[in-house]
Amino acid sequence: MKKARVLLKPSFLPSCLTRATTFFSSVSRQMEMDPSSSERYCYDPVLQWDPQVEEYFNKAYGPDHFARISKALTRPSSYSCIRVNTVKTTSDAVIEKLTKILNESEDGLKLAKPDGSSAISKCQIPGLEYVVFVNGSGPHRIAYDFGLESPPKEVLVSRKCAEAVLRGAQVYVPGVLACTAHVEKGDAVAVCVAMEQPGDDGDWSVNMTRGTTLQGLPTDPFYCERSGLYIGMGTTMLSRAGMFRVTHGVAVDLSNRVFRLPSLHNVLEGEIFLQNLPSIVAAHALDPQKGERILDMCAAPGGKTTAIAILMQDEGEIVAADRSHNKVLDVQKLSAEMGLTCITTCKLDALKSVRLPNTLSDSTTLVNDENSGSMTSRSELSSNEEMAPAASKRSEAEKLCEETASTEQPNGGDNVSQSDMRKNKGRLKNGRGRTQSQGGRAGKSQGFPPNSFDRVLLDAPCSALGLRPRLFAGLETVISLRNHGRYQRKMFDQAVQLVRVGGILVYSTCTINPSENEAVVRYALDKYKFLSLAPQHPRIGGPGLVGRCEFPDGYIEEWLKPGEEEMVQKFDPSSELDTIGFFIAKFSVGCKD
């Protein structure tokens, strides 16, 4: 493969002005269309990208390929991917239970394909037989009552609500922004999407006050913006007044959808986990073995953590870290639901994962006491109970995550500052704060010594430009995409120190951005000569990008070299696999000397 040389041309217009000009040109074209055309009532969104970002991706993937990617991102996958908890059950048992549940549901999901085969099936990829697919369908053309003299009544929902609906959710009250006048409970309504629009200052926002009355006529100020953004017909569960009066509940029962996917929320809890196929493959790429010590650096919500534990048959030691208190509790909850005992959780910023030598014996951890709502030192709790209930016995990792310490410094001074004392008084007076609102405990770690783990998974926080369905992408700029990559390099610098010699490091993201994917791999291989790309199994993703990109400001972004592209896995949303956009790189750690 020839080495590609990508050059981005400088833009002569400010980013915000160019973006707004592109958008309003699109709106003008829409206004020239016949407003009575039935083409208005359809689902045909077009992602609005920052012009420089679009140029960058066009150069990376080619204009035609990126157009296919961009279109695929606006649609959900045609199937739901389910990972079976083989510690508790089997794929066959889950298929039998799901078939019964979905046949009895009111979703109207047909559990048979046109050829007569079942819509629920096992994954046929070797090693992934415990993965189950539930097929959906779409896009469907919906009849929006064109026979009526007046246009259909409409409910306008937020973009995030619409993205959830496209994945199978219902329309809940918090997601409703506007509604046609005189809508009563039981009315048939068309559901459409409110998209962010560019402002004069370059910011994007929904230029609409919640509770706005829709006219449904060409004179409606939001008429053009809704064209091509209709996601289905449904029945209102509340009147218009009710939708804007109550704070929760289903607003519209969406029975006729553009995309029909089963809602598996709270179905077979502990036995199955809804997870994208590339995420499952990332856990396999780590290749965890029984008895090993493994770190998941950015673990929440715990999907990959529990996948690793199941591959280890719950024998070994997994440290699941995240910097958010409540997200750590989510991992604990999922581990408990799945009956996994080898997982230890701790609150830890990935950028501070490596414990410096001078802090190895200097740590005091305060945790929330469930019963009193007060903050208690770990030394007071160590004799009573474990801090992370996901694990059944105290392990070496728990000792690091839940390290005990005296409330006095070696020299006899008080190591609790006046600021901390005031905060603790406030907690006693006011109760739990937002980060403790879920109850439970999240042990705070000071980090880990170098070479502490056999394997490390860094599923890095990213721009998430591979997630689908996605209806908006206007916020990202070339600079922000580049900054994401810089942030991930800092996390990688931490991860590589924590893997022992001979160990494995897996880096993954859910984005299509080369700055966060191939460029990070190039950085890692150039900086750490003891790293080498390792084969991945199973390998079902495509190759990475080879070449480089030169930016107008002189910055050069290096990607993969010829021969390296087949060592990574890049999942393309527009490919036949029909997955999210995802990237996986696996590194073997050689002698660090």
From TrEMBL:
Transmembrane segments: none annotated. Residues 393-402 have a biased composition (Basic and acidic residues). Residues 205-590 form the SAM-dependent MTase RsmB/NOP-type domain. SUPFAM superfamilies: PUA domain-like, S-adenosyl-L-methionine-dependent methyltransferases. InterPro entries: MeTrfase_RsmB-F_NOP2_cat (IPR049560), MeTrfase_RsmB-F_NOP2_dom (IPR001678), PUA (IPR002478), PUA-like_sf (IPR015947), PUA_sf (IPR036974), RCMT (IPR023267), RsmB/NOL1/NOP2-like_CS (IPR018314), SAM-dependent_MTases_sf (IPR029063). The keyword rRNA processing does not apply. One of its GO terms (biological process) is RNA methylation. S-adenosyl-L-methionine binds at residues 298-304, 322, 349, 459. Keywords: Methyltransferase, RNA-binding, S-adenosyl-L-methionine, Transferase. The active site is at residue 510. Residues 361-450 are annotated as: Disordered. Residues 361-385, 404-419 have a biased composition (Polar residues). One of its GO terms (molecular function) is RNA methyltransferase activity. The keyword RNA-binding applies. PANTHER family: NOP2 YEAST -RELATED NOL1/NOP2/FMU SUN DOMAIN-CONTAINING (PTHR22807), TRNA (CYTOSINE(72)-C(5))-METHYLTRANSFERASE NSUN6 (PTHR22807:SF34). Belongs to the class I-like SAM-binding methyltransferase superfamily. RsmB/NOP family. This is SAM-dependent MTase RsmB/NOP-type domain-containing protein. It comes from Microthlaspi erraticum.
